[in-house]
Amino acid sequence: MAATYVSYFGFVIKSVRGMFTGGPRYYAWLSFLVLLMAAGAAAYYRQAVLGLGVTGMTDQVSWGLYIANFTFLVGVAAAAVMMVIPGYLYHDKAVKGGVLLGEMVAIGAILMCLLFVMADLGRPDRMWHMIPPFGKFNFPVSMLAWDVLVLNGYLLLNLHVPGYLLYKRYRGEEPAKWLYLPFVYISIVWAISIHTVTAFLYTGLAGRPFWNAAILAPRFIASAFCAGPAFIVLVLEIVRGWTRFPMGDRLITFLRQVVLIAGLINIFLLISEIFTEFYAASAHVASARYLFFGLHGHDALVPWIWTSISLNVLALLALVSRRFEQRGLVVRNLPLAMLIVAIWIEKGMGLVFPGFIPTPLGEIVEYLPSANEVVVSAGIWGLGLFVMTVLIKHAVDIETGAVAKNN
Amino acid sequence: MSGGSRIRPGDVKRRGFLKLLTALTAGAVTAPADAEAFDLDAFLQKHFHQMSDDEKRRTLQRLEQDYNDKYERDDFTVVADGPTPGVKFAYALNLSKCIGCRRCVHACVQENNQHRGREERGDQVEYIRVLEMEKGSLDLEKAVHDYDHEVPAEDKYYMPVQCHHCNAAPCVKACPVEATWQEPDGIVVVDYNWCIGCRYCAAACPYWARKFNWIEPRLPADEINPDTHYLGNRPRYKGVMEKCTFCINRVRKGLNPACHDICPTGSRKFGNLLDKDSVIRRIIDHKRIYILKEEVGTDPSFYYFFD
Q1: CATH class of the structural domain A66-371
Q2: A143 in B contact zone (CB under 8 Å)
Q3: Is the ipTM beyond the 0.90 threshold?
Q4: A 194-223 near B (Cβ less than 8 A)
Q5: Which of A5, A92, A268, B53 shows a CA-CA span of 20 to 30 A to B165?
Q6: How far apart are the CA of B178 and the nearest CA of chain A, in angstroms?
């Protein structure tokens, strides 16, 4: 038993050392992320002292940039399942090689989700009120309680599976299937659940007609499986270009197909939504009208949503034509970056903000995030990307044998 | 009240990006003088329902002390009078009579110790929003929120909206920590010491009745109402939600809500739904009743009626 702990301790030491060993570009990137984190921490301190009044949020638009980022990142986290299914379930060797990296992206994304929710709390000092038996956790009634549960569960699943596999690989041993495969099966359903529950958070509110639509959950899933794998492809391209991590073309081709199909479904669902809202033109169309065309002279979100739709359409056309697949690194990945931006806009400016505009009493107050809010958000992104980076570096170290027990 | 009643942080100006960065690097963030200091007893305080009678008594004493210290007074009382069996409160508002004078709004702010905003910013916390409606329409999207002229105006009618104390309250379902609930007498309350400030209840409310403390509430000591209830008008904290409680500190003593008593037109009626002879029962049994957003299924305790 003691020997196991000693061995595990050695694993941790070597891994951490590996995570922070790299070339000048690697250090430059990490330093940049640390800077973001420092600025974010300072801005968060200011918010903690003065209150959420330092954000642009109001009683009219009571959720903003934090919850928008949270919603987007749940999708990125869920997207790892698109590699888990072919990798673990169907033993597709090309996919299986990269699935660890997808899981590392998921860990970073979930971490950001949790931090964005925490940043949004008016009383972060009372977090313990959620933890039974000391607190009171309104489960199963509150959808937010569900969300806390599924997100933390997903984080644990994604820490366990790759953690175990990498440790075994480090020791040069075959992993015991019963110690990870059951969790893989659970994580597949769980991944779908995190974004479904996050959608239900919105659709469950009968007093907000813009959100109270059954199409929301399917659209969340479709957009997640478009933006998420697109994000993972960008990560894979970087890993492939800068490390000796073994990766064939097939993995990236497969993920680009997932992005394309999910993106097309997302657009189809968007069209269904727009048709239903505007053709019947019921009284409930106010938020959608505000979003797409502006309402009574208020039109802050109009340029955003049309930018998002344009990026979506152009990027999907580029992917359909397959003309850019063999081009250079930047050109072939540009459509993917466009889709990520498009869907990030769609979740924030396209979904969270307009749900509050007009208010349930018909008042129109627009929302613009404050500088402090933007810096806090950037800090959380910095932290998430930092964790993602060192975890991916770690996976690469182990897979390439740079970090191993007898090394 | 130009641009509607936007909550703007009273003590926090919007700064430019550069100014912000300068402030951050210089560490120029100091707590406001009236900010709450860390207090272990307050931090560890249990949920209202989890406290024993003895713990409740001690908590109320501690709060009285805290408020007296904070606002430099000696007359704070914080009670926790419970509901009376056989009482279920309901409110009715006569849309034919209301003239939109907003006296109810201001009486409410005084009674309930709300955050006093600045007139020019319009960031005061107000539980009642009076809508100026077009005659011939009940469409809230045509309502005017920031009317500023002599009332009543020609061809308009007025519709004050506040918490509807729903019997199937979406806010109660939404709260992840059970910090808000409906009391047996029908009042929907918030435990300000339990709320974590996630604002999901505010997103859930179809009546826009829940108001958040975006900053440390500004409450001048000489404007304070020191007769308070734990679940009602005691001073609030930064970062928590609050709302109308039908003036729980008054109605549990047999008085009417402050908005009811101030109304110069007698548009506001309040009473016990379970008492067959109450004014509220007479109205519900004999008048034409309108329930705002009945289709949302919230089953409110707040009714509108017409003469």
Answers
A1: mainly alpha
A2: yes
A3: yes
A4: 201, 205-208
A5: B53
A6: 6
